[in-house]
Amino acid sequence: MKTVSIINLKGGVAKTLSTISMAHILAEKHGKRVLVVDNDKQGNTSKLFGVHSYERKSIADLMIDRNADMAEVIQHTIYPRIDVIAANMNLLTANLRVMMDSSRPQQTRLRAALRKVAAQYDYCLIDNAPDINISTINALVASNEAIIPVKIDRYAFDGLNELKSQIEITREELNPTLHLAGCLITCFQRDAGEEEGEKWLRENLGCPVYKTHIRYSGKVVGSSFEGKPIVEYSKTCGASRDYISFVDEYLGTQEV
Predict the structure, then answer these.
(1) 242 vs 248: CA distance, rounded Å
(2) Strand, helix or coil for residue 223
(3) pLDDT by residue (tens digit) across 73-127?
(4) Domain encompassing residue 53
(5) What is the mean pLDDT, run by run of 10 residues, along the chain of 256 residues?
(6) Which is it for the CA torsion 100, 103, 107, 113, positive or negative?
(7) Domain containing 160 — which CATH number?
(8) For residue 206, what are the contacts with CB-CB under 8 A and spacing of at least 6?
(9) DSSP readout, 83-151?
(10) Do 80 and 114 touch, CB atoms closer than 8 A?
């Protein structure tokens, strides 16, 4: 199982949209078995897949319970090859409890849990909160790769160097298999300002940038209200076509 963290310290850059779209395309078009981990207390990924709940166990249980039953935490979706580990506001309390618990390692709990089910999936995609906290550090420790969605705007590059540093620190100290797979430009509108911003990104950040751009689409809002991945909601819109192209590009440079 290849584990990928979708991460950026900045909000509003389409992390959740990218995670959901990538999972849906990998499963529906490419026949991959995908486990999606919602690692954001807001639980937007869980809500779209229809598994958000305070009655079922969630990622919070994996963080605090060494013996959590993965069969109770993992939820099936209406998509035969997509399962989800959901999140809710309990993750906030779980993070605090992990930080106060010195009885066992704090940064490797998610990795230990995911290893129990690694043989059941081809990919694990982790949708992370726009933060560096103990649960996002756990995600990076559990991951083989990180993908950074980037929206080109005035504040687009805030925190990117800090995030790169955190990925490098995690690789050096806790997870030598981790690497930054690349930046994915999202919400793209082709104008002079965005093209200049993209040029700066490619020349100055010092990490790969995917060729595919994810264009801005008003269909995204409709897809969230309908509770459907964008490609299912409107396969012909620009964002859908771009995500399909991105997954093709991603698979062209990766090995499971």
Answers:
(1) 10
(2) helix
(3) 999 999 999 999 999 999 999 999 999 998 999 999 999 999 999 999 999 999 9
(4) 2-184
(5) 96 94 97 98 96 96 94 96 98 95 94 97 97 95 97 77 92 95 88 73 82 88 87 91 96 68
(6) negative
(7) 3.40.50.300
(8) 164
(9) EEE---THHHHHHHHHHH--SS-SSSHHHHHHHTTGGG-SEEEEEE-SS-SHHHHHHHHH-SEEEEEEE
(10) no
Task: Name the DSSP letter for residue 201.
Answer: H
| Cβ-based burial of 70 (10 A; exposed 0-12, middle 13-18, buried ≥19) | middle
Which pLDDT does position 197 carry in this prediction?
76
Q: What is the pTM of this model?
A: 0.94
Taking the CA atoms of residue 121, residue 208, residue 172 and residue 13 in that order, the dihedral angle to the nearest 10 degrees is -70
Rounded to whole angstroms, the Cα distance separating 147 from 4 reads 7
Domain count, the chain: 1
User: For residue 5, what are the β-bridge partners?
Assistant: 126, 146
9 within some domain: yes
